[in-house]
Structures are given as C-alpha cells and as structure tokens.
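Fold this sequence, please.
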Amino acid sequence: MNIPTFIAFEVTDVETGYPYAIAWSLPDGQYKTVLVRPEEDWLIDFEMGQYSPDAPPLQDLLDKGESVKDILKEWQHDFERGELYCQDPILAQYCLDLMFNVLDKECEYEVVSEYDCYDKIDSFDIDDQRRWIMDTEGLNATQCEDMVRAMIYVYSRMEDGEL
C-alpha cells in the first residue's frame, strides 16, 4: 500500500501564530514528528502573550526543536509526490508559507483536503471513522502526531475495503 503524504501542524495561535510541532506520513505508512525551533521574528507571540497552553515551554522548543531549514531539507526526501493532504488546508498553507518565507522561497507543495483522498466515501463517514479511530486508539485530536496516525488508519481501512 502506498500512503499519501498526510501532514498536521500544532500552532501557538490559530490566527497569527507559528508552528511548534509537525507530523507527516511516509509512503510506507510510517510517520515522523518534530518540534520546530521558532525563528527569531516568530517570538513576538511570546511577547504578546499569544501562546497555546498545549505548547511545550519556549526553552524546550529552542533546545530540542529542529530548525525550519533542516525540516524543509528533510521534506525534499520525504515528500515525493508534492501533494500534502491535511484536515485543515488553510492552516497548513499558512504554516507552510511561513516556513518557506524563512528561506525567501515559495511553498513548493500543493495543499489538499484529506477528503480528496476518498472518491466514493462521504466526508461525514470519514469524520465518523476518524472519531472512532481516535476513541479506540486513545488518540488526541489536538496533537499533530495523533492526527496523522488517524489519517493513516482511515486511509488504510479504505484501501482494505473496510469503509
């Protein structure tokens, strides 16, 4: 089975924040997740008090996070098809544009709604399957890693004819 590239972001603030965690799938069904070291000009969120309570402490991101440059370099190897499927295309495009702006480049990936992976399945059925998988697997809908895991599970069930 060849899994599409699913991606999910966790951000400091939905409207004006930056990504602090990212998860994405690989064609073999595995996934990667990474903390993002914030860029200097992103840190205004902390000064303005707009910081998600779910985010790790700033010092952890600075110490353990990967640089945007390194993440984008890794994606060149991981994103073979150029299409990224996600639950929230607007948020994903915002995060990708923010990250590519660090290198003064345009985003080179097409952001597509997860629902476009499923030709013959109603979006409400997809949402029901995602909720069921989240519940039965003990996944958290606010964590990017769990969001990607759920998208992989739903896609696998569809490919196996279980949906």
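The chain has a mean pLDDT of 89. The beta strands are 7-11, 19-25, 31-35, 83-86, 110-113.
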